[in-house]
Amino acid sequence: MFPYAMILPNLLIFTLFIAVPVVLGIYYSLTNWKGIGTPTYVGFANYTKALADKRFWQAFLATGRFTLCALPITVCVPLLLAVLMTKNVRLRGMFRAVYYWPSMISYIVVGLTFKFIFGESTGVINYLLTSVGIGKVELLTSKTNALWIVILATIWSTSGYFMVNYISGLQSIPESYYEAATVDGASKTQQFWHVTIPLLRPTIFLVFVLGFLGLFKSYGLVISMTKGGPAGATRFVVQYVYEKAFQNVEMGYASALSMLLTVVLGTATIAQFALSKGGRIND
Amino acid sequence: MIEKTLRRAGTYLLILFLAFFALIPIIYVVLASFKPGSELFRYPPTLFPENWTLENYRDVFHRADFLTYFKNSAIVSVLSTILTVIINTMAGYAFAKYRFRGNQFIFMFFICTLMLPLEVLMIPIFRMVQRLGMYNNFLGLIIPPAATPMGVFLVRQFFFSVPNELNEAARIDGASETATFVHIMLPIARPVMSVLAIFSFMWRWNDYLWPLLVIRDNKLFTLQLALANFNGEYSVDWESLLAMSVVSMIPVLIVFLIFQKQFIKGMVTSGMKE
């Protein structure tokens, strides 16, 4: 009985707050529940409604665009940091800490910080742009620029964490591979593309999947930076679901939207696994 | 030789350049928090305050509500962290050292919960929190997020590296399973427990979505909720907000500085994030 007692608290929490909610969520998505009273079964009405919901698809497209633009940078910048931080450089520990530091700051504070810096009345960016001769531009009030500033803030706040993943990946590559490559006369650049990258594939893949999931469910950072604006350019799916559920109190409908989001995230993860064969080193 | 020196100089320049970008947003905000309100929106803006002032901090610490939010965050983070360390260490140990009916199935179930983040289960989780009487009180912030699959996984990996002979020796000596766990295993597991504690503290302190779903009363707001709330749509009281943001970063920073080595090591060996 001892091992069961040991896992009991976790088992209870996971059952009550994940397994039961999955079932409840599927059930709610088939009802017109408004948060109070008894839910009435409505079949797939919520799903057909979702297919025709322009604002939902707008949020969905905005999320897709954001993820697509941010993902390559999310994967590459931390790799650069990790490569630099596995070189034999002075003060390496300090620089690692400096790069890691932004990932310890809450999304709310990151959002506020970037809002303050890029805000048109508060910000320093427009002043800098003016002094280098570009002139004032619309930042968080322009749809395109707002999206890119959100991307910048997201990358700033996640790179340190992914860097640590890459560092452990890089450190697990045996030194002898590089020695052999050097003996064969491979340059540093060649070594990077033909030794480091292939052997690092599992980690790159991990960062790719984690990055995708994290980006697609972005919420806190956007809320404190743009609140989804301007004109819905940074209103992403999680925010839309939250507003439907807790501001419009259309719990049944919002549950159906959550299910669609779950399906998208799940399919994308599985597809990425299948396409990259789980990021295994040997094909 | 010259090429090598140049290459090396280039590397250092790049490192410094990137470090500048990692630091400057927060440095800018911290310096701005020491500016009087009149200087904050002056054009052209300056990096350093002309007249350094602690006014913003004094105001913030004189606000009864800010102190309440800070206290709420501290209570929730500390209690949830203690619970997290206890229950995940228990579960991870059981999975590493015992074979019991369904152990693989239950472990898979734990790991699968990683695929279902709060973001996709907001509504039914909210409902469960309400039903179980945890809505609008700290229990809802402390208990449900305390179980983390990554924590179980991390502890399990750790105990795989502890030899089974230790358990057998304890059994021969007649120690009960509980006594073995408490008196022999827990002291050994201190490194992994402290990594778990640090992460848990950071997660709970920085969390926004759980408190947003669980807490309604202003009096029970955590710091993150309060910060998001003060950040109005049209008018923002930047003087207070900047000082509050800076203060809100300090606890995690202290924890990081104290445990820096374990922190980085723990990250490297586990690669964990909620």
**Head-to-tail CA distance between termini of chain B:** 47 Å
Profile the largest sheet of chain A. Answer: none
- How many domains comprise the coordinates of chain A? 1
CATH class of chain B: Mainly Alpha
Let me know the largest β-sheet of chain B: none
- The assigned CATH architecture of chain A is Orthogonal Bundle
The CATH topology of chain B comes to MetI-like fold
Total helical elements of chain A:
13
CATH superfamily of chain A: MetI-like
The total domain count of chain B is: 1
Enumerate the spans of chain B where pLDDT stays under 50 for 5 or more consecutive residues: 270-274
Radius of gyration of chain A, in angstroms, nearest whole number: 23 Å
Roughly how much helix do the residues of chain A carry, as a percent range? over 70%
Q: Total number of β-strand segments of chain A?
A: 0
Number of strands of chain B: 0
CATH architecture of chain B: Orthogonal Bundle
What integer value in Å does the Rg of chain B equal?
24 Å
Helix content of chain B: over 70%
Distance between the amino and carboxyl termini of chain A: 44 Å
Your description of this structure?
The complex is a heterodimer of chains A (283) and B (274). Chain A has 283 residues and is mainly α. Chain A has one domain: MetI-like fold (Orthogonal Bundle). Chain A has 13 helices and no strands. Chain A has helices spanning 2-29, 45-51, 54-86, 92-100, 107-118, 125-131, 143-171, 175-183, 188-199, 201-216, 220-225, 237-246, 251-276. In chain A, helix 3 (54-86) crosses helix 7 (143-171), helix 7 (143-171) packs antiparallel against helix 10 and helix 12 packs antiparallel against helix 13. The model of chain A has no long low-confidence stretch (mean pLDDT 91). With 274 residues, chain B is an all-alpha fold. Chain B has a single domain (63-270), classed as Orthogonal Bundle (MetI-like fold), CATH 1.10.3720.10. Helices cover 72% and strands 0% of the residues of chain B.
